[in-house]
Structure formats: C-alpha cells, structure tokens
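--- STAGE predict ---
source: upstream dedup step, 1 unique chain passed
mode: sequence only
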Amino acid sequence: MSDSHMVPAQVLWNLITQLYQRAGMSREEADLHAEGLVQASLRGVDSHGVLRTAAYLGRIQNGAINTAPHMRYVKEERALQVLDADGASGYTAGKAGMERAIVLAQEYGLGMVLVRNSNHFGAAALYAQMAVDRGMLGFSTTNVKPGVTAPGAAGNVVGNNPFAVGIPTYCDFPFMLDMALSVVAGGKLKMAIAKGERIPLDWATDRDGNPTDDPQKGFDGYFLPLGGFKGLGMAYAIDILCGVMTGGAFQNHIRNMFKDPTEPSQTCHMFMAVDLSRLLSKEEIRTRMTEYRNYVRSIPTVSGRPLVLPGEIEAACEKERLEKGIPLPETLYQELKTLAQEHGLSVCL
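--- STAGE serialize ---
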C-alpha cells in the first residue's frame, strides 16, 4: 500500500495503552484494549483494529464505558453461567467471560458463559483464540444494534451479529472462522461509491426495501443478510441467545457505539470452551487436522491456487505485519499523531 505508513505493532500498542490510561483506564485494562486492537490489525481485520482507537477513546472519556465496573455472576448453574458486566468495556467483559468458560471446561469438559450489560468487544476471534491457546475449541459471539434487514422488508430488523469458531490444529495456524452475517460490510459499498461502480443486487436494498445496484442507495438503505433467510435466522438466534435469554438488551434496546457515543451499548455476548483433550490427544488432533487440510488443498481450482482453511490468510498476514509493520492509511496515521499530541505523548509513529 504505497499511500500507507508502516508502523511497528509494539509502537501502536504502546500508544493506545498510554492514550487509554490518560482517559482514566487502569494500566491493565488499557493494555488489554491495545492488545485487542493491535492483534486485530495484525491479522488483517483492520475494520476492528487500530482504526477504532479514537472511537473507544471517546467512549471512555464520555463515560459510555464503565472503567471501574463491579461485574458479578447472576447465574451459576455449573457449566452454564451468566455475568452482568455493569457497563464494562466489551474487551474487559469478554476476557472475563472466556476465562471463566475455560475454567468451567477444565472441570466439566465444556463451559458456557453468557454476558449481559456490556459494550462492543472488538473482533470475535480474540476470544475464540483464548480457548485455542489452551488446547480447547473456542466459540464467541455477540449481538449488536439492528443493522441488517430481511429480504422484502424496509427497515433494520436484527444486528449484523458476528461469531468466531476456533479449533487448535497444532500445525502452523489454528482453524479460525470469524464472520458477521451480512453479505458484505459497509466498507465494500463505500469503495464502490468512490470508484463509481455498481454493486450486486444481493448486497443491499434502498430505503424502500428494493434490491439496488446503486452503492449509495444501498449504503443509505439496509444491508442484506448472508444467504438470505438462512443468515437472517442465524442472526436472530444469536440475538435471542445473547440478549433475550440473559435478561439483557436485544434488538433496538442496544445502542450503536458510533451513533450513541455517550451511552453504554448494553451489548451481550456468549463464550464457550470445549476441552478437546477429553476427545483426542494433541498428536491425534495434529495428524487428523493435517489430513483434513491436505484434502482441502488437493481439490482442483479454476485459478490453480489451492483452497485455504479459515485462519490461514490471517495467520500469514500476522506474520508479515509483525515483520514489516501495520499499514496505516494517511488519515488514520494523522489521526493517531494528533491524539498523541493532544494528550501530551511523545510516541513517534
């Protein structure tokens, strides 16, 4: 990217930690946020990475994120528990939730923790990876404010609710599926607008609910769910599980972190860990997952390039960016420099 600035991951990590400390977070919590944002950018998930530094900073300063929460478990039914996050950052609540799920899985073989009254938790893969690092299957998901319509409807009916599934392979990268449930993200429409291009009719609708190939009308209208009613149904299921069943917020009770910068999002999450050592040894998992990957790679393709498993591209991106730095667009680079100056930090990007 010729118009980007390559910045070492550790430099960005230090900058974000210091910014959030200046805003009132403890060093531990600020460092946790920096880790999550930088890790997402390292893996190429830039939409949930360093790009969001300023947005979280504003929410901390506005009090939308409770930096001194009194989180407590309101349900403890052995392997199934519910945590009230008291308006904590989603990163804080997410780490606590998955850590407890892992402990429960060590005891019961499987642990599931639901979290209510939280905030945006970043990339779902961050939490699935926590379980993978312990040799466990990890599943994480969250609900968000409605931003996806139903085919034939004219209005947002459910959140673009993401989920991640992580499975250890004991090879060069874990299986890591991290996805949301709209056909495409808003950035794809913005790019089409900038290039003056049309978009496929299954990406979005206009404000009247009609499928459109005009990216501006689609951006001003509603995003369509992945796989039509199948993706829509999955989004409903996540919202019901995370929000309805925890006694937490769902549908329009949730706030948008950008449009409502002074209000807690009240998002809800779910974390699950499965102790795979109760099923197979590490060597058995490595052997069988290697066979699985090799079969996928053996399938002929039109391009001649082998198929990849979820997580493979992200792992390669992380390796490259650790060596060369994280590419920051000029606008983001200048934004971070300005934030550093405003808060009296001497960090050199």
